[in-house]
Please model this.
Amino acid sequence: MRWIYTPLATAEVEEFSRRLGVSPVIAELLLRNGLRETDAANRFLHPALAELQDPFLLTNLGAAVTRLKQAIERREKLVVLGDYDVDGVGSTAFLVSVLRRFGLDPRFVVPRRLEEGYGLSRGAIDRALEAGRPDLFIALDCGTNSHDELAYLQAQGVDAIVIDHHRSKEKPLGGGILINPHVHGGAEDTPWRNLCTVGLVFKLVHGLLKQLRAENHPVAFRIKLKEYLDLVAMGTVADLVPLVGENRILSYHGLRILQQTQRRGLRALMDVAGLKLGQEIQPDDISFRLGPRINASGRLADAALSVELMLSDDAVFCADAARQLDGFNRERQEIERQITETAERMVEELYGGAHGLVLFSEEWHPGVVGIVASRVTRKYHRPCIVLGHENSLAKGSGRSIYGLNLVEMLGTCADLLSSWGGHPMAVGVSLPRANLEVFRERFDGAVRTWQRGQMAEPGLEISCWLTLEQVRDTLMEELDTLHPFGQGNPEPVFGIRGARFLQRPEVFKEQHFRFQLGDERGRRLYGVAWKLAHRLPPVGVPVDLAVQLAWNFYNDRKLLQIELLDWRPGGADAQGAS
Model:
């Protein structure tokens, strides 16, 4: 693996450090993130809810607020349909909860993945209409490309609002009110450009409350929008949208609300996931603990259970539902493990030379292939689409590598696909089985062209070089000001030169190892290396390390932990391979 480090001018780093009143390490990290102006850097370091811009700047948000006000005034019948992932579940729970506060009783529907497919499908709509025709139908995290389905609703006299952040493949919707920053254009650097759906719902509710408070509506003054930021943070982190602009503000404050959440369902879910109330919540806790459990019901059962959990105040129901989700997640993990092993064998035996991977099996469960695509993409550093079998279709999900826009790649294959959509790093795809081989060739060719014929080589970008003496709690406290890390604000990777392992690393679970390092003053530092047991470093010999730094919460203690990503013999060139 190549280590890549582009030095910054020492004078520039020191001057920026002085102007901001931060350490040179933080100054260098900010400069690498493109934050060269003092005001912009200060806003980044101190994300404030007061910096959120006027929600009515979003195209069509005013029209959607007017239609919701009408629904509240007339006590209309509403249906809310949301996608089955964390973003869709959080969006649905958020909007339904707020509308209930205004005296409405909206029905909510989550598509049943195996029966009805993805998003605003005809099957999901028909099921939603079984209990009677509503006055207003609100689609969340889907619907941008659902021209026929919206026309079907309108033919029955049902008004529609669509709130979505997926890219449009066709002309904008002709009917209904669509809130989607990617469809209505505007400057790429608008702070709300990359909001996921739950962030857009936040903007919609903000606009609704603002309007109703101006009209002295009593309920509007009793709703504290900040209390919904736990749902916003979960959807924002889980959906892999860039954590910059308003996403940074919402997730920064939302993570703090989440760790003290008063939502019974979330507290029960945190309990089964091993997270204590009040414990500091990091994005990884959403990505690897809470999110997968919420997603598991939509992948293997009915995601309505996750929405009900977010809305419920019944402690017994919440505990039982959280246990059910935990059980679904364990089942999902086992299915995923088996599929991943088979998918990796396919890559090794059949598609080793492919630049873009398309993997398919009739036996694979379409509900978990997205996670498998993520694992294969990370292991082989290639964009990967993993497809299972559903009726006559090959159906599944894709994940990308940094810089490659999967939506654009699929656009070159659109004539072969039944449906597709998503965002640059993650997509959903379905196509007739008969088109599979041609699609595999076309997708590989599109990726190959983008890469100009060169297979992408995994690289590790070193953000900053440290000495072991600098690795202290004080540095961790400074790094906390850069949280949350994620898309658009990557967690820094630090280089450490000439470190010595004090004793042979301790291998555990046959894949990982724990280790100890000593600094110049004899202080011991402890760390872990995930899935590196096949590359144990030598003892007592200087080596260079590529690491990340994290807090390890154990037995009510918060300990600094080094997480080793890679190592190489001491003194190697920073651009070279280990």
